């Protein structure tokens, strides 16, 4: 057997082209990785990490486990296409071996096996293979049908909106839709003419045989294989430039992640793996409040990654993000969407200026002395009730406190960091670090989740424990240093601040504190799925009116709980929600201070 | 005899009732508070003439009480309004031939602008608190001392998108000037500062008053909003602001901070919209039928407006509108009879 026919050319050319481009991409990306990343790869590659990565590749790249969790209908669609196609290839190879024994067969021999080895050409027919292959083809076709239907009616798979595509995506997508129907027709005609095939290709073959004359079937026989080969070839050519590049990017990405490579504050070659691993499934669109509550399209993570990948990123898209992390939460590929957007901001907006913060030298407006430091942050200074309540709490617990910024101080740096001005932020980080060291604190309490995050993630405060006031207050209560009156009549609802919840993984502490005071009624969206209040300092693109719209929508959901008081644990959220609700909005510290039973000392 | 229900017993409501009564129409005033007289009752003196507020209110109350055909129902609210029926607290319904809504405004709650520390720090008061102190002749600091440096902050809860109050409350600028002059009269050696965005001196005699405040009273005017207030160790208030004329940030220690709180749409307006289908503006104030020829009429025939229920207004403007509303009501009643 020669295993070559003219119709194979589109497939061979396409496959070879794709292999070259993908290989070129891999090599370029890997070559440009920072040295530290290369060392991590060298360390991890021959360790157990590679095994666990392999397992994850099976789970995610083939079975799409995470999509199943987010949306089972989409999960089925992706599994049927990816795993189904994989099995068609794998079983196809086994079939080849079963018929021809262990011998070298060129790639097109496997792919177009039914053409090269029709039933009438073999000694012992193995119908089980026909059945399995038909079943798998049906499995894949069901996925294709779903994908096609989803394009026209995304609500059918539980998505309000689906992604708008680029030209390459549309070529690849169209080719992909044609591959399996073309294969079905080619194999059915083959079955009609030469036998073989099971319930699907065999069945359709019988139907074709009964409708068309043999002559007609013979005349379109070659053409049908040409069509199949062309669809494959076209898909392969468009693939490296389209969303389908994710198929071959996610696999190395999973390995690199297991070797502990991460995107950083500045853009690096590693980012290419994350960016091209985006399949543009569009799952990130629905959770985005800029879309659902403001109708801002084309700014969501999927579009941000698309634009960055094709070098057509605009600042207004980079800036138009609340960094609430709701998209990251659902991304089936687990892409670090916030980090990537942030490092784009750094590239676009960071303007180093040595002289700009010279005035910071010598500034120290702190008051008091103690091992515990309290950092209010700029936003808490605009909600002084929180500061006042913290003072009452510290007094009741008999804590000696060093007040870092009671009458104004140096910003924690995170707002600058979020805007991409990392150099300016670093100046503030250094200044505050110096103050913390000079005053010898061992615990740093802050009532602002924005400050909390930067202290934990960027300050490197060895020997100083950083606590959010919710954690600190809960600790005081547990240790018996703070006695709180419980009144079951008091009802509260709680708004999870993004930086505290999704950002710092603190969900339970504020709830535990609220429950020591009264009854907590949860809003519809809470914890990991909580809404952003809309006032995020990370978004410099939306208007005040748009911020208010978001706040009002979020406020309405909190008011729907009918709780007397809306509690939050972030000064910015408090201010924002106050614009959207008529009932009382309080910081966690306020309701604690109001319900202190006895002053210990 | 024809019967009209006037909702709200403030200056506009009373004035309207008097005018209707004089035309031989029976009137019921529905007032939420224990007494009629509205917010002017609590005011000390009125700009620009420094007329004691009580002169105005007492005269109006005396006149309305002399009207035989005016019934005053205090401590009750209008729950539901139709042109021919008003349901009040307790479920009682008042049948009528027309309704005048003169329910006024609500004072902006200064605690919402938390950064100014109202309700948190001592010696941060509102313009309404100051009027009350002036009435009681008790303008002093919490520790009993006299203030030596005073700041008045304009536009608290007005022209402020951050607290969803975009409108100008109209009367606070001139109130700020008036209160600064009163404070200066009480404490001639004190330094008095007005922090403002614009000074809007639109009425007769206002501009003259503003000049007098600067030339004769030596009151300082700084263009810039205060951004935040914090207490100092020695019991003062430290304010941070930007002088936008010199373009410099400034910090200042003051003994007393007066917040000139704005007029917010009345609390009952939302209810009027939801249950009575009366139209509201984006600002929350009720929407008159037309800004020119129908400014005391509502979108519902037989329901009329008078005073600050439709927008911030001065006392004089509210009184004028009350008269206009009364005449429009009378005309409508005659028409429909």
Describe the structure.
The complex is a heterodimer of chains A (601) and B (337). Chain A is mainly alpha-helical and 601 residues long. Chain A folds into 4 domains: 8-247, no CATH class; 253-348, Fumarate Reductase Iron-sulfur Protein, Chain B, domain 2 (Orthogonal Bundle); 360-475, Uracil-DNA Glycosylase, subunit E; 483-594, Rossmann fold (3-Layer(aba) Sandwich). Chain A is built from 28 helices and 8 strands. Chain A has helices spanning 8-31, 35-44, 48-62, 65-70, 72-100, 107-111, 113-116, 127-152, 167-194, 201-211, 214-238, 246-258, 270-276, 289-292, 301-309, 315-319, 326-330, 337-349, 377-381, 384-397, 414-418, 422-438, 449-458, 469-478, 508-517, 544-559, 571-578, 588-594; strands at 372-375, 401-403, 443-446, 465-468, 491-495, 519-521, 565-568, 584-587. In chain A, β5 (491-495), α25 (508-517) and β6 (519-521) form a beta-alpha-beta unit. In chain A, α8 (127-152) runs antiparallel to α9 and α9 packs across α10. The longest helix of chain A is centred in the first third of the chain and has 29 residues, at 72-100. The N and C termini of chain A lie far apart (95 Å). The relative contact order of chain A is 0.08. The model of chain A has no long low-confidence stretch (mean pLDDT 93). Chain B has 2 domains: 3-104 and 266-336, FAD/NAD(P)-binding domain (3-Layer(bba) Sandwich), CATH 3.50.50.60; 110-263, 3-Layer(bba) Sandwich (FAD/NAD(P)-binding domain). In chain B, β6 and β7 (85-88) form a beta hairpin. Chain B has 337 residues and is of the alpha/beta class. Chain B has 7 helices and 20 strands. In chain B, the strands form 6 sheets. In chain B, strands 5-2-1-9-20 form a 5-stranded parallel sheet, with helices on one face. At the A-B interface, α20 and α26 of A face β15 of B.
């Amino acid at each position: 057997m020669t295993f070559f026919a003219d119709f194979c050319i589109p497939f061979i050319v396409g496959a070879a082209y794709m292999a070259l481009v993908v290989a070129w991409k891999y090599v370029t990306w890997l070559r440009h990785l920072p040295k530290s990343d290369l060392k991590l790869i060298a360390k991890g590659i021959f360790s157990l990490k590679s095994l666990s990565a392999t397992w994850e590749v099976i789970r995610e790249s083939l079975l799409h486990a995470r999509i199943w969790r987010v949306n089972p209908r989409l999960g089925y669609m992706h599994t049927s296409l990816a795993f189904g196609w994989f099995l068609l290839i794998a079983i196809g190879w086994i079939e080849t071996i079963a018929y021809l024994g262990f011998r070298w067969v060129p790639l097109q021999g496997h792919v177009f096996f039914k053409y090269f080895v029709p039933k009438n050409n073999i000694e012992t027919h193995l119908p089980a293979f026909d059945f399995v292959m038909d079943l798998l083809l049906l499995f894949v076709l069901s996925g294709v049908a779903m994908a096609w239907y989803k394009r026209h009616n995304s609500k059918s798979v539980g998505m309000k909106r689906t992604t708008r595509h680029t030209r390459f995506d549309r070529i690849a997508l169209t080719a992909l839709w044609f591959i399996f129907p073309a294969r079905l027709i080619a194999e059915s005609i083959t079955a009609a003419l030469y036998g073989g095939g099971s319930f699907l290709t065999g069945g359709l073959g019988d139907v074709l045989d009964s409708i068309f004359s043999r002559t007609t079937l013979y005349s379109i026989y070659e053409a049908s294989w040409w069509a199949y080969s062309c669809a494959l070839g076209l898909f392969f050519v468009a693939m490296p430039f389209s969303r389908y590049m994710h198929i071959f990017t996610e696999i190395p990405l999973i390995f690199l992640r297991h070797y502990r490579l991460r995107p950083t504050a500045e853009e690096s070659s590693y980012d290419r793996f994350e960016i091209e691993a985006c399949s543009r499934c569009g799952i990130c669109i629905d959770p985005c409040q800029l879309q659902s509550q403001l109708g801002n399209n084309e700014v969501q993570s999927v579009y941000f990654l698309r634009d960055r990948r094709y070098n057509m990123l605009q600042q207004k898209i980079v800036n138009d993000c609340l960094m609430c992390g709701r998209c990251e939460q659902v991304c089936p590929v687990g892409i670090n969407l916030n980090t990537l957007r942030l490092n784009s901001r750094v590239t676009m907006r960071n303007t180093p200026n040595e002289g700009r913060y010279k005035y910071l030298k010598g500034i120290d407006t702190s008051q008091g002395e103690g091992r515990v430091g309290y950092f209010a942050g700029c936003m808490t200074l605009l909600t002084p009730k929180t500061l006042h309540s913290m003072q009452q709490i510290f007094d009741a617990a008999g804590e000696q406190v060093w007040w870092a910024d009671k009458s104004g101080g140096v910003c924690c740096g995170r707002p600058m960091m979020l805007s991409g001005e990392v150099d300016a932020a670093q100046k503030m980080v250094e200044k505050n670090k110096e103050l913390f060291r000079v005053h010898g604190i061992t615990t740093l309490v802050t009532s602002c989740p924005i400050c909390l995050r930067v202290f934990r993630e960027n300050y490197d405060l060895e020997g100083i424990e950083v606590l959010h006031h919710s954690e600190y207050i809960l600790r005081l209560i547990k240790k018996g240093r703070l006695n709180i009156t419980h009144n079951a009549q008091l009802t509260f609802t709680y708004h999870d601040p993004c930086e505290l919840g999704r950002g710092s993984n603190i969900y339970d502490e504020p709830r535990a504190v609220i429950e020591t005071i009264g009854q907590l009624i949860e809003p519809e969206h809470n914890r990991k799925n909580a809404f952003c209040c809309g006032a995020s300092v990370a978004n410099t693109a939306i208007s005040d009116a748009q911020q208010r719209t978001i706040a009002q929508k979020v406020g309405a959901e909190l008011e729907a709980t009918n709780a007397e008081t809306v509690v939050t644990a972030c000064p910015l959220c408090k201010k924002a929600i106050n614009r959207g609700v008529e009932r009382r909005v309080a910081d966690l510290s306020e309701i604690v201070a109001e319900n202190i039973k006895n002053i210990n000392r | 005899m024809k019967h009209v229900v006037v909702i709200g017993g403030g200056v506009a409501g009373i004035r309207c009732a008097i005018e209707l009564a004089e035309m031989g129409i029976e009137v019921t005033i529905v007032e939420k508070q224990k007494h009629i007289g509205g917010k002017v009752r609590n005011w000390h003196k009125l700009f620009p003439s420094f007329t004691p507020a009580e002169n105005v209110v007492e005269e109006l109350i005396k006149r309305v009480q002399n009207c035989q055909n005016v019934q005053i129902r205090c401590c009750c609210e209008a729950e539901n309004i139709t042109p021919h029926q008003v349901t009040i607290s307790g479920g009682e319904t008042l049948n009528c031939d027309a309704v005048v809504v003169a329910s006024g405004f609500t004072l902006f709650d200064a605690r919402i602008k938390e950064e100014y520390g109202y309700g948190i720090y001592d010696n941060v008061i509102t313009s309404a608190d100051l009027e009350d102190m002036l009435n009681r002749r008790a303008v002093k600091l919490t520790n009993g001392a006299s203030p030596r440096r005073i700041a008045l902050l304009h536009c608290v809860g007005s022209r402020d998108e951050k607290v969803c109050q975009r409108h100008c409350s109209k009367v606070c600028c001139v109130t700020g000037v008036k209160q600064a002059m009163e404070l200066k009269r009480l404490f001639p050696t004190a330094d008095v500062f007005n922090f403002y965005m614009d000074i809007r001196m639109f009425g007769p005699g206002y501009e003259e008053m503003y000049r007098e405040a600067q030339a004769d009273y030596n009151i300082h005017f700084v263009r810039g909003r205060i951004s935040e207030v914090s207490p100092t160790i020695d019991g003062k208030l430290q304010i941070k602001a930007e002088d936008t004329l010199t373009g410099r940030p400034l910090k200042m220690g003051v003994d007393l901070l007066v917040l000139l709180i704005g007029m917010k749409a009345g609390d009952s307006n939302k209810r009027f919209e939801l249950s009575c289908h009366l139209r509201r503006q984006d600002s929350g104030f009720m929407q008159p039928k037309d800004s020119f020829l129908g400014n005391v009429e509502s979108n519902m025939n037989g329901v009329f407006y008078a005073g600050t229920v439709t927008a911030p207004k001065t006392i004089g403007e509210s009184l004028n509108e009350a008269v206009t509303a009364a005449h429009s009501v009378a005309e409508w009643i005659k028409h429909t009879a």
